[in-house]
Design a protein that fits this description.
heterodimer, A: two-stranded antiparallel sheet, globular, B: mainly alpha, ABC transporter involved in vitamin B12 uptake, BtuC, two-stranded antiparallel sheet
Chain lengths: ~325, ~350
């Protein structure tokens, strides 16, 4: 009898969890219906293509942030790591690219350089946060300023990718129907992180640390190592975002990441990942990113006045969070 | 150590010694921000000489102090309850824009309300703080998200209010105000100092001030003794809104123009200043007095780096490193400490 009851409660909790997921999904559906009602072509091929390909860099960066938020930490440096990777990519393409045998090789080299930089940024930030016990908010705030500086020192003003190197960034334009290659690559990234999240020790430790760090420590999880490796993941994701943006913009932009800093966090939170840690996941984040993209794209598409856009965006975000926020846990302290 | 001593020391003595050691450590930690501040002043005085250590430069630092100080004070209360306020750039900008519109100006001549215009600007920000608090508390949305959304809303309202061209303030009294000073300290800084004084009084000598600490430490205790945690939280966000509104009004007066951009770039330095001063992001620790030290550290740092002629791009980087160092010096460490 007693065990039956436990199963029932477990089932009910799982059902509630599923309902939460559908809620954030419902926010998107409502938005799409609203936008389509005011402009019929909103779901037309051309706009769908822009909407989907525009969200690729945000997806890549947000899935990295998801892990950090599940830990209960935050990473404000992702935007500026993205900027540095962006300028590094263009620098490699323009300065080293011509001496290599093919543009494809240059593109690959730029990718490797970005990833190494992202991993490096993640490692030092992780070490400072974990070993020196500096709260991640403030550690990443410090690194945000630092990397902003580095990006501007590498390239003061935006530089376009040299014409000879254009084949190296052509992949951005490859599309299959309405789905572009950047989105496919981003979704592959999602798949990889989903596997890490659900089927590896690090992934399971992640939830355990986010839920109760002290207990995880006592249970023998090497909390420090897990945290640092997850910061490496977020660093790499941020750098990949910068790489994608360089290819998309065909130029470097040393301040390109600044606007992403808080947007990433908002997208992840909209996707149902709790800011206090322990709950959420990368699949929800994909939904969250699409919510943000649909709002931004929709406002442009139906022609919301530029002065009104900020207000409407803010109100939409507020409404979307109000719908999707998790209220299932009674007595949970919301900070 | 403890084991070796246990032979010739009773448990009570050992415990007392441990407490004493911990207290001593804590006291040193508390002084760390002040030490950082004096170290910076010393370094810049040696490197820049007369340029830095002069009365003229002191006035310059005080002049730039007002708005970051006000913003950081408001934020301190929010951080003390364990929340966060990202709306600063928006609310300050909105307050400044509305002040610009509702006093005598070159674009909207029909709305000249004089001092009433300034009040409208400040009240708009108070209202936003109040709303943000209500939504945060009653809809149970994290303060991070609520204030993030309000940042956009307020920026939008500010931009919309003057649609394009920011109004220039023509009111003779307000136009003269930035140049006025009293015993060498600019008038605008005086206003900030008055607000600072009031906030210290609120924090130290009112029940509300004590509740703020209690909410940050453990909400359940406070609700167990019958204090409405929700009300305290809404009040804190409203108070923060008031501080941001005053900052916006003063910024508009100082610039002589009401525009949204005065709020730009205030938020992250303010967060850094609050934490560098020793207020814990987890809530319950620190206070307005800590924040003064934090803001001074940030202002002295950027002033000194400008005087040294450091490239502005490198300047942000150095500021980032100093934030890391200052906080690394002040945070509590040890095997049991959990940092998020």
């Amino acid at each position: 009898m007693a065990s039956n009851k436990t199963v029932d409660i477990g089932k009910r909790m799982r059902l509630q969890e599923h309902l939460m997921k559908y809620f954030s999904f419902s926010a998107i559906v409502i938005l799409i219906i609203a936008f389509s009602a005011s402009q019929q072509n909103f779901l037309g091929k051309a706009n769908l293509k822009t909407l989907l390909s525009d969200s690729a860099p945000l997806i890549i960066m947000s899935i990295g942030m998801t892990f950090i938020l599940i830990l209960g930490s935050i990473d404000l440096a992702m935007g500026s790591v993205c900027s540095v990777a962006n300028v590094l990519t263009v620098m490699v393409l323009n300065d080293i690219g011509p001496s290599l045998s093919s543009p494809v090789l240059a593109a690959f080299l730029a990718l490797v350089v970005s990833i190494i930089f992202g991993a490096f940024a993640g490692v030092i930030q992780g070490i400072i946060h974990v070993k020196l016990k500096v709260p991640s908010f403030i550690a990443s705030l410090g690194f945000m300023s630092l990397w902003q500086s580095v990006a501007l020192l590498i390239t003061e003003a935006p530089v376009s990718v040299a014409k000879a190197m254009w084949p190296a960034i052509e992949w951005v334009k490859v599309t299959f129907g309405v789905i572009g290659l950047p989105l496919i690559l981003a979704l592959i990234g999602v798949a990889i992180l989903y596997v890490i999240q659900n089927y590896t020790t690090i992934g399971r430790s992640l939830y355990s640390i986010g839920g109760n760090e002290r207990a995880s420590r006592i249970a023998g999880i090497s909390v420090d190592k897990v945290k640092i490796s997850l910061f490496v993941v977020s660093g790499i994701c941020a750098a990949l975002g910068g790489y994608f943006l360089a290819a998309k913009l065909r130029s470097s932009a040393p301040r390109v990441g600044d606007s992403f800093t808080l947007l990433i966090v908002a997208a992840v939170a909209l996707g149902g990942t709790s800011l206090s840690g322990g709950r959420g996941g990368v699949l929800g984040t994909v939904l969250g990113v699409f919510t943000v993209s649909v709002i931004q794209n929709g406002m442009n598409f139906i022609g919301v006045d530029a002065y009104w856009q900020n207000i409407v965006f803010g109100l939409f975000v507020l409404a979307a969070v109000a719908i999707s926020v998790d209220r299932s846990v009674r007595g949970l302290v919301v900070k | 150590m403890a084991i070796r001593n246990s032979g010739n020391m009773s448990i009570t003595e050992e415990f007392a010694a441990k407490i004493k050691r911990d207290n001593q450590k804590e006291r040193i930690m508390k002084l760390a921000p002040v030490i950082v501040l004096f170290a910076l002043i010393l370094i810049f005085s040696i490197v820049c000489g007369k340029d830095f250590a002069s009365l003229k430069n002191l006035v310059a630092v005080l002049n730039q102090l007002a708005i970051p100080l006000l913003v950081a004070i408001g934020l301190t209360f929010v951080i003390m309850i364990g929340g966060i306020d990202l709306s600063i750039n928006g609310t300050v900008g909105m307050a400044a824009s509305l002040v610009g519109i509702f006093v005598m100006n070159n674009r909207f001549t029909q709305f000249n309300l004089g001092i009433g215009g300034i009040l409208i600007g400040i009240l708009s920000s108070v209202l936003v703080g109040f709303l943000a608090g209500l939504i945060h508390v009653y809809l149970r949305i994290p303060s991070f998200m609520v204030t993030f959304a309000f940042m956009y809303v307020c920026k939008g309202i500010g931009l919309l209010s003057y649609s394009g061209e920011p109004p220039t303030i023509l009111d003779p009294v307000l136009a003269e105000l930035p140049k006025k000073s009293f015993i060498g300290i600019p008038f605008i800084t005086w206003m900030a100092l008055i607000v600072l004084g009031i906030c210290i009084l609120i924090q130290e000598y009112t029940a509300f001030g004590r509740y703020i600490y209690a909410v940050g430490t453990d909400e359940s205790i406070l609700s167990a003794v019958g204090v409405s945690v929700k009300k305290v939280k809404v009040k804190v966000f409203t108070l923060a809104g008031l501080c941001f509104g005053i900052a916006g009004a003063l910024a508009a007066i100082r610039l002589g123009q009401g525009q949204v951009n005065v709020g730009e770039g205030l938020m992250f330095p303010a967060q850094a200043a609050v934490v560098v001063g020793g207020t814990s992001l987890a809530g319950g620790k620190g206070g307005v007095i800590n924040t003064i030290v934090g803001v001074l550290v940030m202002r002295v740092l950027s002033n000194g780096l400008v005087l040294m002629g450091v490239n502005p791009y490198i300047r942000t980087g150095i500021e980032g490193i100093i934030i890391l160092v200052a906080v690394a010096l002040t945070v509590a460490r040890g095997a049991k400490v959990i940092s998020k």
